[in-house]
């Protein structure tokens, strides 16, 4: 068949696509390395057959309920762009509450060194380093997550301010920090099968599973963080919407002063624990 029979423009492909139109636009933007304006002002542009093939492959992934972020290996968080794949959690909007609270703390105190425990994609650490003068360390138990976090630090121009340590929580940490941030896994194990299909089928369970009651990592953080904090150091932890009281209790028992911040939905979302 002569090649022109296969010719299809951006506009035609978007018009014919059977997946959600926004997903279709983002997939094309990713394949063509265009922003939305470039895409929408080039609707008459004829697509190379290779691009159409790639688009169709990605559209199949979307139809199979793979989250768009994994299909295009891209997620947006705190106004920055992150590489993601199925080895790391997709950054969540709610986690911006944690990042914003920690950024405000760094910018209004003398805090300069940050540890991000369970860094995953590195989205929290990279945002903190991007928006402040701080330097920091990202820690994760997953080597493939750490590779992604490193890549994201470089991608967002904070590679020189970031280092990464493979460690099961604090076991291989030897320094002290002004600030510890963490968005640890906090879903109770038995709830994982009830999560949305796209989450339980594609996101890493290791990054979700907080043990039988979902609180396993908060116990470790409350018990051990003090050994890795400078005097007056602070811990910022993201929590599940219904875990505020339980995590507050854990931190009070460990001797911290506790403040809770809510998300935009009015739910408890961040616990701030400070050594008195
Ligand atoms: N810190 C990463 C995030 O906020 C990963 C969190 C996790 O793996 N539980 O997305």
Distance between the termini: 76 Å
Shape: elongated
Order of helices and strands: HHHHHEEHEHEHEEHHEHEE
What's the total count of β strands?
9
The share of residues in extended strands comes to: 15-25%
Oligomer: single chain
Notes on the structure:
The structure is a single chain. By secondary structure, the chain is α/β, with parallel strands linked by helices. Helices cover 38% and strands 18% of the residues. It has 11 helices and 9 strands. It has helices at residues 10-16, 21-32, 36-40, 49-63, 68-71, 95-108, 123-131, 143-155, 197-202, 216-224, 244-253, and strands at 75-77, 80-82, 113-117, 135-140, 162-166, 177-182, 229-238, 257-262, 268-274. The strands form 2 sheets. Strands 5-4-3-6-7-9-8 form a 7-stranded mixed beta sheet, with helices on both faces. Strand 4 (135-140), helix 8 and strand 5 (162-166) form a beta-alpha-beta unit. Helix 2 (21-32) crosses helix 4 (49-63) and helix 6 (95-108) packs parallel to helix 7. It is elongated. The chain starts with 9 loop residues before the first helix and ends with a strand. The model has no long low-confidence stretch (mean pLDDT 96). The site of glutamine has 13 residues, from helix 7. Residues 89, 91, 95, 118-121, 123-124, 183-185, 207 line the site of glutamine (GLN).
């Amino acid at each position: 068949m002569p090649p022109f029979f296969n010719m299809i423009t951006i506009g035609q492909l978007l018009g014919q696509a059977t997946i959600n139109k926004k997903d279709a636009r983002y997939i094309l933007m990713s394949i063509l390395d265009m922003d939305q304006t470039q895409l929408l002002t080039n609707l008459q542009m004829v697509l190379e057959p290779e691009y159409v093939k790639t688009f169709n492959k990605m559209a199949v992934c979307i139809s199979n309920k793979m989250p768009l972020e994994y299909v295009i290996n891209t997620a947006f968080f705190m106004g920055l762009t992150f590489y993601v794949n199925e080895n790391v959690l997709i950054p969540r909007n709610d986690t911006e509450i944690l990042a914003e609270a920690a950024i405000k703390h760094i910018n209004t105190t003398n805090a300069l060194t940050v540890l991000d425990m369970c860094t995953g994609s590195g989205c929290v650490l990279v945002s903190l380093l991007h928006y402040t003068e701080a330097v920091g360390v990202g820690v994760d138990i997953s080597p493939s997550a750490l590779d992604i976090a490193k890549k994201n630090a470089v991608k967002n121009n904070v590679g020189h301010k970031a280092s990464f340590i493979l460690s099961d929580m604090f076991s291989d940490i030897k320094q002290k920090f002004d600030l510890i941030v963490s968005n640890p896994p906090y879903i109770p194990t038995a709830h994982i099968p009830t999560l949305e299909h796209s989450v339980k089928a594609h996101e890493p369970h290791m990054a979700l599973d907080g043990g039988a009651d979902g609180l396993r990592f908060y116990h470790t953080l409350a018990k051990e963080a003090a050994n890795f904090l400078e005097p007056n150091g602070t811990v910022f932890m993201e929590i599940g919407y219904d875990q505020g009281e339980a995590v507050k209790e854990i931190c009070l028992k460990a001797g911290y002063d506790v403040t809770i911040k809510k998300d935009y939905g009015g739910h408890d979302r961040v616990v701030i624990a400070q050594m008195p």
